[in-house]
């Protein structure tokens, strides 16, 4: 079979079929997937059969892997250090208790964010694979929602585009967790991951489109009074997450979803935490700080 792409939403989210990503891809297929990423920003692969090693091998065909926060810390972990454990399981594969600090930290994923923006060189692509998904429940099904930050930028008033064109925001993992009242950072981030500046408006290198670059990690606007900067960031987040800009992915076991952190935000949704939700993410690094890239 050959690679096929069907549009899930016009210009945002493409479903890929016709390839088995558990095996190495040829250069033409990788180039076609990059073109699809540049066009859609979110790609969905259904019915894949991946273990941790094949997921990592697939990701490495698209760039250098980013080591997760937990992977750089001396902690007991369930998975190998290159993989982000997006689950409700502890290192012994038991469901985490409601008062487990790792659960509190994971709740930060339910805020709108973009992966790795709190690093000087932020994340490029994230690749999340579903091993086990919870069933439907009254509280939610554990979907992941994605916001198209290209369209969010395009639909801003021209005066706003002019105002924010050259602004820089500080991104801080401690800020995003503090919004939930969780100040106990688990992996020494205050020393290892101090706040970093990132452009508020980026030029996406693959598509040539301008995109908003905001997230729950964005704590303030450099050079602005703190209240003014936080109001602007909140208003931009509210604009970017209007329903018409958002796709909600309903997970099936065997799904792999790629998203481009340079032009999307995402968040996890509620689910019945008495059921297992085991998703695993591998992420590639961008090539430079946003301040070193063309705006």
Question: What is the beta-strand fraction?
Answer: 25-35%
Number of distinct beta strands? 15
CATH homologous superfamily descriptor: Clavaminate synthase-like
Q: How far apart, in Å, are the first and last alpha carbons?
A: 39 Å
Query: H/E series, N to C?
Result: EEHEHEHEEHHEHHEEEEHEEEE
Protein architecture, described:
- This protein has a 7-stranded mixed β-sheet with strand order 1-2-3-13-5-15-4, covered by helices on one side. Strands 12-6-14 form a 3-stranded antiparallel β-sheet.
- The termini are far apart.
- The chain has one domain: Double-stranded beta-helix.
- The protein is globular.
- 23% of the residues lie in helices and 25% in strands.
- The chain has helices spanning 27-40, 52-60, 101-106, 149-154, 158-164, 173-178, 189-192, 226-240; strands at residues 4-9, 12-17, 42-45, 84-87, 123-132, 144-148, 168-171, 196-199, 201-203, 210-212, 218-221, 246-249, 256-260, 264-268, 278-285.
- The protein has 8 helices and 15 strands.
- It is an alpha+beta fold and 295 residues long.
């Amino acid at each position: 079979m050959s690679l096929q792409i069907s549009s899930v939403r016009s210009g945002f989210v493409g479903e890929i079929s016709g390839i088995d990503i558990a095996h190495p891809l040829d250069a033409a297929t990788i180039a076609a997937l990059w073109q699809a990423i540049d066009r859609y920003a979110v790609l969905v692969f259904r019915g894949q059969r991946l273990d941790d090693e094949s997921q990592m091998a697939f990701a490495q065909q698209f760039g250098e892997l980013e080591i997760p926060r937990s992977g750089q810390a001396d902690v007991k972990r369930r998975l190998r250090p290159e993989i982000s454990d997006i689950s409700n399981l502890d290192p012994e594969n038991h469901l985490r208790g409601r008062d487990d600090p790792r659960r509190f930290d994971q709740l930060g994923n339910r805020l709108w964010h973009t992966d790795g923006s709190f690093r000087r060189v932020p994340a490029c692509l994230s690749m999340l694979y579903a091993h086990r998904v919870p069933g439907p429940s009254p509280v939610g099904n554990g979907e992941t929602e994605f916001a198209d930050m290209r369209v969010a930028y395009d639909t801003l008033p021209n005066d706003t585009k002019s105002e924010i064109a050259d602004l820089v925001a500080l991104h801080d993992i401690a800020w995003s967790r503090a919004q939930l009242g969780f100040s106990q950072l688990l992996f020494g981030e205050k020393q290892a991951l101090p706040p970093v500046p990132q452009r508020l408006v980026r030029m996406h290198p693959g598509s040539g489109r301008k995109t908003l670059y905001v997230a729950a990690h964005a704590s303030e606007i450099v050079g602005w009074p703190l209240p003014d900067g936080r109001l602007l960031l909140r208003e931009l987040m509210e604009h970017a997450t209007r329903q018409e800009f958002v796709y909600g992915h309903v997970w099936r076991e065997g799904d792999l979803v790629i998203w481009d952190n340079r032009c999307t935000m995402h968040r996890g949704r509620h689910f019945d935490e008495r059921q297992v939700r085991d998703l695993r993410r591998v992420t590639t690094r961008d090539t430079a700080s946003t301040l070193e890239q063309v705006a």
